[in-house]
Design a protein that fits this description.
Six copies of one chain form a homohexamer. By secondary structure, the first copy, chain A, is mainly beta. Helices cover 5% and strands 32% of the residues of chain A. Chain A folds into two domains: 6-116, no CATH class; 119-279, Sandwich (Jelly Rolls). In chain A, the strands form six sheets. Chain A has a five-stranded antiparallel beta sheet with strand order 11-12-18-15-16, with no helix packed on it. Chains in contact: A-B, A-E, A-F, B-C, B-D, C-D, C-E, D-F, E-F.
């Protein structure tokens, strides 16, 4: 355990562990957060993150779980509290552990949540239409729903129907759409999409998207399934199919543009420079002389 | 064609033909409304309803359809316009047909809508929780949604989340819920439910509910599937199943109590006095010593 | 001065003197209200109305005027206060004048307002479209505004855009509309219209509508200018014209139906049974073979 | 225990026991409600009320308390469920106890609340000004607050700031107002006030208002402290004083008029016909020649 | 036709051609936009702007017009799409024309609108008072309206009544105000005003404001008619006058401050450095001894 | 009097004189603002601030006071108006005093307000919970109110319940809380707190906070009473006590971070570098073996 906790004075943190569990100590107690769980630590709370090496006795409830009780009554010669404030880091030195809160009440408390308990349903405010649909026949929209029914957390902006950020997942489910193209369609979004994979294979990019990986599609950048996914989804019979079993992908969708740090763009050496090639196999299917077959 | 149209000065009419088509003449033109279509004639519009005996040239669009153009330039010695105003009927006599409107613009216009084009989705405002769930194990709620996603028309009240009336349908769809009881659960509703069947067999009452029939469950009257439906839905394997193919049931759900006319309660001689018996076959399944089998 | 004031426990009163002034004594002081002025006495205030026979020293401000100060310190053997409560009249006897309030503060106070100071402009909330326009060519709508810009007082309902009652006037103004029919068009209103004349001649009914008179058009009852007005407005050149100089007509427009008392319908012997005849001179102008002349 | 529970299909019940405890059995379990506690049983719940003769094991929390768990698995030959619906009583006969619910989840549940835990604070929406202050000098309003800070429960109407009903209490507290008249002032209210006493002596009517008693002041009926209270509160020094210790009075304040049943007005023989006399000792203190002493 | 379209990833474009028409090609088809028309191209749409050299077959409707249908099925070796994103320009190279959309549905579509069809009326939300009126006698405000009735487009901010930008025009109309100064008054605005002229002469600056020109009055910068306009408007008789015939001036009014590019301030060499002189001829008219003539 | 007034084109100014009075000349007249008064000068108004050396004839009303009438008809060779616009200062030269406004109407007017007239009550919108309470036993919260009841002015943001800035005071009052720690508790605030003292001694920091002084606690910086205040408030008997007599402290509380100018941080040489020591005397009181005494 380090003697150097962090706090964010202005915003909340959302943790989405993709590989390996986190042992998060807070002023309110401890949370062990494993992949497929998320954790929210709110503005102003002192916390530290370690690899889990201590026993936990979790009692998962199906609802968001508060921390396990726990406090330290520990004198430390130089405890350094790091504060992120207005984009800068500040340091304060104190002589005792900040994790010395014995009890608390109220609902201003960090929590974790197991995504397998999530049931996609209507968020508190219905979304405004946000997508520009372009490029392929959409077919009968009877069963295509806005992905917003998969919104787990939302941070609303002052503009109704627009989120500073939505946290969305694509959990295991049945696909039963008929007369349509079932994967996520080709689109441009007026929101930025930061997407990641926690486990399994993402249906729309079967090879190029691994657990621990993530993609960023900034506002109005067109994207959609790769060539392989397009081919199979265009020809398979449309009977009920179980999708995403054993997988969990997630998305932060925000009305803001997301900046890249130098670390993320260069230092980490993890950017996939050939990502765009996943669409190059898409063939031109347009035939100006095509006519629909007669139907009922 | 009669020379006696009707208008409702205070409210709109919604027509839901269950058996046989309607030929509706309005000041805005004519609408032929067939079963599985609905028609809205708004406050103050003169109209008359006949059995269809004239040729129509419909051009259905998938969207709500306005009337086919048409007007009458016809002198009539005693044209009697009946007005429903504040619960009473008034009659005015005039010397010409009221259906003499040659053209109009705007969106204050009667329309019809084919229910087969409806895609269940989020209404404009998300519903507040409205149900009291009682009596059976609900199980994993992962796929049970509020029926409000089937709302076709809503007439909102001044209280957010509460409708003066919702018009709801239960169209053909896939049932994919798992770990649960799939038919409409046993419940009491704080809204009144007036339900009817247009075609096919209703899944929760396979025998006792015929096309052209209707049921009324007033506020807080408990109801749910009949004994036969309960038995089969409790034992069938939960694989994807196509439900309601070939059927169309509908519901008016209202925060008001619905009164019964003498005609409806007595004169028509159509009340099913043994309706309550559909639940009498339900067996008591409670065993205070029962314990759940261990599960993962 | 009588010893029998009135109060309305549930609603406010709006007085619109059409012929002769009113001397209104209230707990807050006295108001002399002359034709072309209106007076509001709010819920629960004791007041009495007399013919004015005492000197006033008004200081009109252009804004709504509060009462002139004044109180009575007067013992009365049997002062009878009449209260209108839930549609009934109640009487309480007390031994002193209720007009004994020496001073007050706040804005819960009766007031009067001179309609000549009114400038038609946007009400606090813009109206929803409320009219069904039928029956005559409307032409270029460039200058036709919703009459709501003439709303002086509004009592909003819980439904945005719908008023329990609007008090509207039609003050002297310039008519500059071009390519159109300038008088109030033929229409049905989803609101009830109770209209009256304070002075002058109303443009749309030049003979049949006298100062002190009033008309009631209930919801969805079609109405519009009389035959004479239609003829002249259809043929006059459309140069700027000063209208309504020397007149003041008003309207209470309400989303409710208005009931008629026996006194109003029969006892008063003032109902104009031939009112409907003002429209009988309207000629049928429809020619199915008519074609518009070509225009730029 | 009777075999005849009640339910209200349209509204909720609020119980305020003034004398003696209630033993309330509901489908959700049992609640023992003692004086100074209130109990809410919502729309559509079956319940019965008895004198408490069974042991309870309450675990009061300081928050609203749900029922103690409990159910009956009991066959009854003729169980009669009484339903109050649209102002009428209906009866249904069934063969088993309705109190057979073994478990439930959610927050649609009856609850009780101990009024001693209430801390007066801001309600969810700030009240609009509702009072007409008349009749006595109010003095320095620095510490006079709107009684709405004592609102325990509110049932909002569709009109912001207006309640269908507020449930308000006047708990023990310090009175520290200076330069003012401390008891409830003389006023007319645009709301109806139904007030009762649970224990102790009400400060504004020290004799005439006993535990178990209640008063009704309909809209715009003036009222205020009795003569004795006025005298003492006008002359006592204004040092901090503990008020209402050992008492609990409550008020239902509603924007609706309250009707009286025959039972309440006559049959019960409990109406205090001399109630109005409590104000008859109030002396006239007005002196037109009075002048305020000069102050800083 | 260039092979280099533009898109704006974050905001919409509004085009207001002042001199010469624009030929705008978009993914949704083509729009020919002539002076006195405006064109909106929304966020994320690819488009290019040319001088019109191709035949169009416009069918103007009086309503906003969508593009004429059209698409290109064209391979291009290096098609360069320029994207404006977060204030920077980005370039992407592709091998085909982006204008290859064959069909679309929905209302996310560029459109043009002919300003001659605009009728000034109430915007969706009434404006809050925004002006500080200073410096000259305003006179009888009976006919002076807030210019907001001329708002054609508004982009609301999160603050009710405040627009990120309003697009306002001053179309031909009758001026009928009496007892007042008719031109735009001297004022400071809490909004920034960017104003331009499309055709004709602007009434408040008859010489110094030519078609194709524009002015910027930043927040709280006082401005108003030039000296010549002040003189004539102060002395002319106030009979109905037709104003702005043959002209069209427009204004973008925004709650934000507008920055100037180097090009706009220097490079273009178009800034009128003597603009301020238009007010220097205004004479001081203040006479402390002046008294109004008595009036009725 | 200088010939160089200032205006702020984008925001309003709030003046809170802590030591010595201000003589503020505006286009609307003059205001003498003394300690314990505040003054608001809105966006775009020209004003200058001097030490008061001219006689005033104030007529304080208890309400916000507008300026005393006054104007200058004064030619000046070089009058320099300084404008603060978008964070920069601009200068315009003119030949006459801008304080030449003879009369005005409306409510866009600077005003002053005497804080002694303030009565703490509910602000227009109730605050959302904003505090994180940490570190000491809070006890019975019966009388602890959110400090928001002391809000004098609020500048709301677009997010309901969050203010761009609240101006709050802590006026003389009775402290009657029981079973609790009465001074401001130890807390972190998600808002920034800029606090100052106008006169007297602040209760929570009796020595280190002088009239004319101010403190800044940025978001989420923990703070609370000094050691001395903690000791006495923890041991004194909790009888009614008059607090803050003869003092006036104020706070600007804002959801934004406040930047420090170089002048404020260094040049002024007024920063109290030992401020943090006021908490160093706080002793550790935690005893893991402590148990509460039994109570009723």
């Amino acid at each position: 355990m380090t003697n150097s906790p962090l706090l964010n004075s202005v915003w909340d943190f959302v943790f989405v562990p993709q590989q390996g569990a986190l042992d998060i100590t807070t002023e309110f107690g401890r949370l062990k957060v494993e992949p497929n769980e998320i954790c929210v630590v709110q503005q102003g709370m002192r916390f530290s993150v370690d690899a889990p090496n201590r026993p936990f006795f979790p009692k998962p409830s199906g609802l968001p779980d508060p921390p396990s009780p726990g406090y330290e009554d520990r004198e430390v010669s130089e405890y350094r509290v790091i504060s992120k404030y207005q984009g800068h880091l500040f340091e304060a030195v104190q002589g005792h552990s900040p994790f010395d809160v014995v009890a608390w009440h109220g609902n201003y408390v960090p929590y974790k949540y197991n995504l397998k308990n999530f049931m996609g349903s209507c968020p508190a405010f219905p979304p405004t239409p946000r997508y520009v649909f372009l490029g392929v026949e959409i077919g009968d929209p009877t069963h295509n729903r806005d992905p917003s029914i998969f919104t787990v957390l939302t941070c609303p902006s002052a503009k109704p129907g627009v989120a500073i950020a939505d946290f969305v997942i694509f959990p295991p489910r049945w696909a039963v759409q008929e007369h349509t193209f079932r994967p996520p369609y080709y689109h441009r979004n007026c929101m930025s999409e930061f997407m990641g994979l926690i486990c399994g294979n993402y249906e729309a990019k079967e090879k190029g998207f691994q657990p621990g990986g993530a993609s960023l599609h900034s506002m109005m950048t067109p994207h959609g399934p790769d060539a392989q996914c397009f081919e199979s989804a265009s020809t398979e019979p449309l009977k009920p199919v179980r999708v995403a079993d054993g997988t969990q992908s997630f998305m932060f969708e925000t009305c803001l543009g997301l900046g890249l740090t130098d670390w993320g763009e260069d230092t980490c050496c993890k950017v996939d420079a050939s990502y765009f090639k996943c669409w190059q196999g898409l063939k031109k299917n347009f035939d100006p002389n095509w006519k629909p077959a007669s139907k009922e």
